[in-house]
Specification:
Number of helices: 11
Strand content: 25-35%
Distance between the termini: 45 Å
Radius of gyration: 24 Å
Helix content: 25-40%
Structural class: alpha+beta
Number of strands: 23
């Protein structure tokens, strides 16, 4: 069985088309063209803004012109993570695999986040049997790396009163709130020197961690490959003279790092002690993450002496800051049981041109003051280590409105279809809804979607039966709103 055999055919057919169109964050030109061609093919009104967002519009079914306008919203871009070295997300399509009730990709992220939201919205726009009021579909750019599209939404792009964000990841749940977030970048400048000739050099590597979404998966206690890397380097550096030649780990600010490596050296007289330290850490990691990280691997190999190394002071400052940097859940919500309130993700460390090393962290909280407090704590830590620290613009949280009309309509729609009252929740991940509210304060919003697992990692998968329920919930919600009056 392939994706083309799956039901609902109208949704999976469009989703398959989307998987064939490259769409990395900040490089959405090809998917934007697909959307514009789709609108032209189906005679839909279409509009773009300066930042690259796209909105399509369809007039109300005759007799339902006075119903509240609905905006279906999804983002164009996808997280690009792969187990295949050299996979070209800018040019290669995603290969999908049907595995029982689950759909996943062949060693890459699937892009169901948020390709399935796009597919649902496009399928609804082209469903001639669907009774609806004024209908819009808004597709934003660069949600994954900066919320750039939502932050810069052009004037008069949307006209409706109710927004359905189709970017949630759990069937039978409706989300009415989310955390805000802010990114912090820490730039080290180092002196480059010749790597000592009387040192023995190793490559230490961590691979095959689960990684995952730094919001929704942060409470699962998965390994952070950058932190484990720093742990080993700190242990080595606390006992021996450490010559650091290369360091790299993590990729995206909103993904838990699942791989990292460092090239380093110690005096030749201590090389056997490094092997002992490595074996000890390997045993500790296997014990600490038993049942959590089934596939994580740690390796150590001897390599030829590199030509250059980072100066010893920057090496010490960098390793100590990375090791001391917090990662994971900081506090839980006192209002919603089981909801993470505040967290931080030590996202990546990368060597840059011109003798720079960049470390990136990402903070989230449903309490604005705690979001900034945590960012400032990390700023203080890395400033002490000699780094130049800057913060991104961040994005606001979305405070729950328990009197929301669209929340009740979406809940009733699911109950009528499946006899189950969906859970009403807030999510620790960031959604674009908070930014929409700053531009359109009167919007009534909810977020829902089918069940996705391990998003932002090559293990990303989507539950096929949940897509069918998501599709019918979307259609039924739109039909019920068509019977309302503004």
């Amino acid at each position: 069985m392939t994706i083309k055999d799956l039901q609902p055919a109208e949704v999976f057919g469009i989703f398959h088309e989307i998987t064939q169109v490259p769409r990395p964050s900040k490089k959405e030109g090809k998917i934007r063209k697909y959307l514009l061609d789709f609108a032209a093919k189906h005679n839909l009104e279409v509009q773009t803004d300066e930042i690259g967002n796209v909105v399509m519009r369809k007039p109300a079914t005759p007799g339902h012109e006075d119903a509240p306008g609905i905006i279906m919203q999804a983002h164009m871009d996808m997280v690009c993570e792969s187990n295949h070295k050299g996979f070209d997300f800018e040019n290669q399509p995603i290969t999908t695999i049907v595995d029982g009730d689950w759909l996943h990709a062949d060693g890459t992220t699937l892009g169901a986040d948020n390709g399935i939201g796009m597919a649902g919205a496009l399928a609804a726009l082209t469903n001639d049997k669907l009774v609806h009021g004024p209908l819009e579909a808004l597709f934003t750019v660069d949600e994954e790396t900066g919320l750039t599209g939502a932050n810069n939404l052009g004037p008069d792009m949307i006209h409706g009163q109710m927004l359905l964000n189709l970017d949630s990841e759990d069937d039978a749940e409706i989300f009415v709130g989310c955390a805000g977030g802010i990114d912090t970048t820490c730039l080290f400048t180092y002196e480059r020197s010749m790597a000592p000739t009387d040192f023995h050099y190793f490559k230490f590597e961590i691979a095959n961690g689960l990684g995952g979404h730094s919001g929704s998966d942060i409470k699962l206690g998965r390994a952070n490959a950058v932190q484990l890397l720093a742990r080993f380097l700190w242990n080595v550096g606390s006992q021996f003279d450490l010559s650091l030649c290369e360091i790299d780990g993590g990729n995206l600010r909103n993904a838990i790092p699942r791989a990292s490596h460092a090239i380093f050296g110690v005096h030749t007289s201590n090389k056997e002690k490094i092997v002992v330290a490595f074996n000890q850490l390997k045993a500790e990691v296997e014990n600490e993450y038993a049942g959590i990280e089934p596939n994580i691997t740690l390796s150590l190999e001897t390599i030829e002496r590199p030509e250059f190394a980072v100066d010893s002071k920057t090496t010490k400052d960098l390793v100590e800051a990375l090791y001391a940097c917090p990662h994971g859940v900081i506090s839980m919500s006192r209002d919603i049981e089981g909801l993470v309130e505040t967290s931080t993700n030590l996202a990546s460390v990368k060597m840059q041109p011109d003798n720079h090393i960049l470390a990136v962290t990402s903070q989230r909280s449903s309490v604005e003051s705690r979001k900034f407090d945590l960012a400032h704590r990390i700023e203080a830590l890395f400033t002490l280590a000699g780094a130049k620290v800057t913060h991104g613009d961040g994005y606001p949280g979305w405070a729950p409105n328990m009197k929301s009309k669209i929340m009740q309509v979406a809940s009733d729609a699911y109950y009528e279809l499946y006899g189950i009252r969906p859970a009403i929740k807030a999510i620790h991940a960031g959604l674009e809804c908070g930014l929409f509210l700053t531009k359109y304060p009167g919007l009534d919003m909810v977020s829902f979607g089918p069940t996705l697992r391990d998003v932002h990692s090559p293990s990303e998968s989507m539950n096929i039966p949940a897509v069918d329920r998501f599709w019918h919930q979307l259609c039924r919600t739109i039909e019920k709103v068509a019977d309302l009056k503004k």
